[in-house]
Design brief:
It is built from three helices and eight strands, in the order ααββαββββββ. By secondary structure, the protein is α+β, with helices and mostly antiparallel strands. The mean pLDDT is 94.
Length: 138
């Protein structure tokens, strides 16, 4: 394991705790590198969906980042997966999560627009945390 990956993973665990992810999902990530994806707060292991797991690994490899959670949603412009991640460079890790109010946060993510891949991009999304799960709300 590269040192960068280890530091990124530690930061990812810190962020997961900050947004109050279900403890068994954090443990699965820590112990076995399992990433959870969320459908309206309900969590499932990403490796249960081969296409999603393949895309997750491709993003990590291409951008040398660590994905720690994924949300899935249908929005007005298509089907999207939002990959919450920790980037390679330390100076980019300061504001990956910003709490706005009670259980809502702005989070840095790569959004894969399945409907129109050309519109896939990095950016900030708004997520809501509830009952150990998350969902994208903006």
């Amino acid at each position: 394991m590269k040192i960068i990956f280890k530091e990124q993973k530690q930061k990812a665990v810190e962020l997961m705790k900050q947004i109050d992810i279900f403890k068994p999902y954090i443990k699965g990530f820590e112990d076995n590198n399992l990433v959870c994806y969320y459908e309206n707060f309900g969590g499932f292991w990403a490796n249960q969906r081969p296409e999603l797991q393949e895309k997750l690994q491709a993003i990590e490899k291409k951008y040398n980042c660590v994905v720690y959670a994924v949300t899935h949603e249908f929005v007005e412009f298509g089907e999207c997966y939002s990959f919450l991640l920790v980037p390679e460079y330390k100076d980019e890790r300061n504001n990956l999560i910003y709490k706005t109010q009670n259980n809502t946060f702005y989070a840095f993510a790569y959004v894969w627009n399945v409907t129109d891949n050309y519109c896939s991009e990095f950016g900030t999304i708004e997520i809501q945390s509830f009952g150990g799960g998350i969902r994208r709300i903006g």
